[in-house]
Amino acid sequence: MNCRDFQQLLQPYSDGELDLVRQLEMEEHLAGCLDCEEQERNLRSMRTGLAAAMPYYPAPDSLRAKLQLAPPPSPTVTRRRWRPSGQQLSIAAGIMLVVGAAATIGMLVPRSGTGADDRFAERVVAGHVRSLQAEHLMDVPSSDRHTVKPWFRGKIDFSPQVPDLAQQGYPLTGGRLDYLTDRPVAALVYHRRLHAINVFTWPAADKTATPARASDRQGFHLRHWQRFGMTYWTVSDLNDQELDEFVRLFQEQTAE
Ligand SMILES: [Zn+2]
């Protein structure tokens, strides 16, 4: 199943209508896919927002009598919230899409060119946080680049450069696959004392080399550069000076 398949199942998923196997597949996918996870979150917040905004009126006794219903339950005990149907949700989703698109266009116009980087920066930080929180920092825990580099073979369609920076105080601690886009990317993990440094790399769409550019996001420091046809994003809570040194050393040891 690809993202489109999953997204078509988001509605029944949030209605609790999927069978257990599908539901687990969905949860697994959502844990690793920012795009689908974001859509799921939007759907959920829209549902809660709509449900909370809709007034609730208990049916009057006369109507209940006509319909031969039991008297209304105590509102504090079993008050049933109105839940929007799939059709109502898709109309609301359409409205939100239009509003969202307008907002996005408005946001991107004055800063064109940085939009894609911004999006990636967000994913890079999310990937970093996810790797720390889920205690899933490494698929291949090893300080040996001759173990880490071949581990990626057959799992991704490129071979990442894995410099050895242990001598300089930035030991390699492992690697894993991560999903920042619709394709798996290589995540290399280095450490400086107790600080984890994630380096995400994949073949660049645009082969021009760019120097490392610094940015901050959610308290993390990021560096982004391109070199020899590869894109690199590194992220850490390490201080700026040491992160710059790390990037310089890393670049020195990545050859064509
Ligand atoms: Zn997805």
Described by the principal axes of the CA atoms, the overall outline is elongated
Distance between the termini: 36 Å
Radius of gyration: 24 Å
**Proportion of helical residues:** 40-55%
Strand order of the largest sheet: 1-2-3-4-7-6-5
The major β-sheet equals: 7 strands, antiparallel
SS element count, helices: 10
Class per helix and strand makeup: alpha+beta
CATH superfamily of the largest domain: MucB/RseB, C-terminal domain
The CATH architecture term of the largest domain is 2-Layer Sandwich
Count of folded domains: 2
Which fold name is given in CATH as the topology of the largest domain?
A: Phosphorylase Kinase, domain 1
CATH class of the largest domain: Alpha Beta
The small molecules bound here are:
zinc ion
Strand content range: 15-25%
Low-pLDDT parts are: 76-81, 104-113
Q: Helices and strands, in N-to-C order?
A: HHHHHHHHEHEEEEEEH
Average pLDDT: 82
- Extended strand count: 7
Structure description:
This protein has helices spanning 3-8, 10-14, 20-32, 34-53, 61-67, 75-78, 86-108, 115-133, 145-151, 240-252; strands at 140-141, 172-179, 184-192, 195-203, 210-217, 220-227, 230-236. It is α+β, with helices and mostly antiparallel strands and 256 residues long. It has 2 domains: 1-54 and 84-105, no CATH class; 115-252, 2-Layer Sandwich (Phosphorylase Kinase, domain 1). The chain has a 7-stranded antiparallel sheet, with helices on both faces. A hairpin with a 2-residue loop joins strand 3 (184-192) and strand 4. Helix 3 crosses helix 4. The relative contact order is 0.09. Zinc ion (ZN) binds next to helix 1 and helix 4. Zinc ion is lined by residues 3, 6, 29, 33, 35-36.
